[in-house]
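Sample intake sheet
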Amino acid sequence: MARRIPISQPRGSRSFRRNAGQKLPRSITLIVCEGETEQAYFEAARIRYGLTRAEVIVAPNTVGSAPKSVVQCAEKKCGERGGYDRVFCVFDRDGHESFGWARNRIAMLANRKRKALPIREAISVPCFELWVLLHHEKTDKPFTRCAEVVERVRVRVPGYEKANATIARQLMAHLGTAVENSLWLEQRAGNNNFNPYTSVHHVIGHFVQVAAAKDQEDMHAVESTFSEWAGTADEDAYREL
């Protein structure tokens, strides 16, 4: 197994070079969320893209549910032994007093000159249910409370409940629609004072990239095995296949 580089030293391009017979190191992603609703969703998305729990770690938040607590939890886990190629902090606006602090802290950690972290925010305004709604509906209607968004979601997803793993899995059938609608909303968010707004689609985009790299690695492994077999196989027997 390739040696994991501490998060304070993000992997450079040299660590991804492969010598003959050596597997590429797999990307390791950490996701820290506000609550169980987001955790259930990203577990479903991880499975949707064929990623293992070793490649995408949806960590339990042991600090608290406020945005500040999410970032503090991520920082704490970054200090543990091992490393991550990408860290996402998933949290809502939803009236939280520490929303601005959390965003500023992430920007500082990502851009500081020494020991910068590969950390990024994935926020929703007013709440994560906006991202859920975008699986079924394109909207830029402002919301004042999360309860309004949940009510709208239940029109599209009857019986919707937070932290429901079954509903999270069902949403995967509409994931492409959610990304498309979120990109559309991102382009016009400045016109409505970023209400509503979400950047959760960037997490999904990262999953797509990791899955594509994994598929390429597996393809290289198959090609290498086939080449070795073809080079040692009896040519006459090979022609008779």
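Comment: Residues 1-25, 229-241 have pLDDT under 50 and may be disordered. The chain has nine helices and five strands.
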